Amino acid sequence: MKFLLTYQGDTTKPPTAETMAAIGKYTQEMVAKGIVLMTGGLVRPDHGTKLAYAAGKLTITDGPFPETKELIDGFALVQCGSKREAIELASGFMRVAGDGLGEVLQVFDASEGGPPGPP
Amino acid sequence: MSSETHRAIHAVWSIESARVIASLARIVRDVGLAEELAQDALLAALEQWPEQGIPENPAAWLMAAAKNRAINSLRRGKMLERKHGELGYELEIEQRPEQLIEQLESALDDDVGDDLLRLIFTSCHPVLSTEARVALTLRLLGGLTTDEIARAFLVPEPTIAQRIVRAKKTLAEKQVPFEVPRGDELSLRLASVLEVVYLIFNEGYAASAGDDLMRPALVEDALRLGRILAGLAPNEPEVHGLLALMELNASRLAARTNSAGEPVLLLEQDRGRWDHLAIGRGLAALTHAESLGRAPGPYVLQAGITACHARARTPEATDWPLIASLYAALNMLLKSPVVELNRAVAVSMAEGPAAGLAIADALLSEPALRSYHLLPGARAEFLEKLGRFDEARTEFERAALLTQNAKQRDRLKQRARNCGH
User: Fold this and answer.
1) Nearest to B254 among A85, A89, A111 (CB)
2) Which ipTM score applies to this complex?
3) A81 touches chain B (CB under 8 A)
């Protein structure tokens, strides 16, 4: 099973060098365990571009978006045996990354007969 | 609530157990004992966590609990040896436990990579039967329970339990050292490790999705083992070749059956459903293997063949001449008529059906292929393309008689009926 783990840190406190090093070490350990498929970070998306499609009309809105709350700072695509394992990986990450919010999302995979996904 | 805690414990266990067992095994020098001590730590977690809550750092908790058990076991061993030991021996023993405990402490803090590698080589040791190696590897390195292994291999749980108990006993009796082999022995022993991992992969790859998911999950277990091995043995091309082969094959998992669950042949698969991230990892592993500059072994060559398909955006873009030459190289190593038959197919795609048929015809006298349905199947394809329909029909019928698979038989009979129309 594959899961997308996302993390959004506390925006008021940028991570220290120690935290960044700890995150790097944790990620390396998970890579060595054969679990992590890819990791990445996102540039703060308040300067991103939003697209909306409704009733045949496409609207494109450029940032900045001053009140953006939903920020994803980093993500990891992992492969593990159960959702609980993914939660455990995310928990371990949160412990080193510090205050913030995380989310565990299962990637739909037709070959696994997993929960129903998009048609 | 408590079942949620149990799931959490199981999750931590399946992520951490290999490292815990590997660290302990280096100190107690007995894989079976190390596993028992680690199991004791797991039991302690199962007792304490539901009451006291999941610890802040569950992995560290498990490691510490296992460490305490190893230290206690060494102390008990010391007392026993004191009772029975002779004087000279006793003096030596006197110092050992403290040193060992010190060693233990540092080993558990260290990077356990080398211990993991030792554990892999030990559980794949040739003194064990292949079945025992597979079961023990999944148990010690994959963190699977005996029940999960039994379900994955469709055998009763007591059979697997007994297989593992016997394997551990054999390792102890034969005094298999907990070490990474060196010199000439390394390549032989490595072949045994790779064989086990590839067997686990294929067992899962052959299983269809939908039934017990423990079977397809073997693909992921094997991939995880392959990635761990690749990290531990960066300079062994075959390790990376195997990882590449597994990643590239796994990339096609979603595309190889249609919505009705019927198999879809490689050239007819929807390439948009291939997992391109997996392909990227597979190609990177293959590039790494090739960069090591050694003569390619069977896994690197097979990965190279699979990579030709993975790189092709469309079936027409497949580099068949390269596939044919890789099969030729593979046949030099394996001397296998099945590989030669695959080469015949690749050559037919590269140079035309007549060239393929010439290679396939040379295999007709091969005893190993006498009842192999793919030989008449391939000849039938070549003959049909050459317009020799009567001969092609006979070959399709012969292939239909030889195959064990009902769906395949129907398909071949239909090909025979449609031949020349």
Assistant:
1) A111
2) 0.76
3) yes
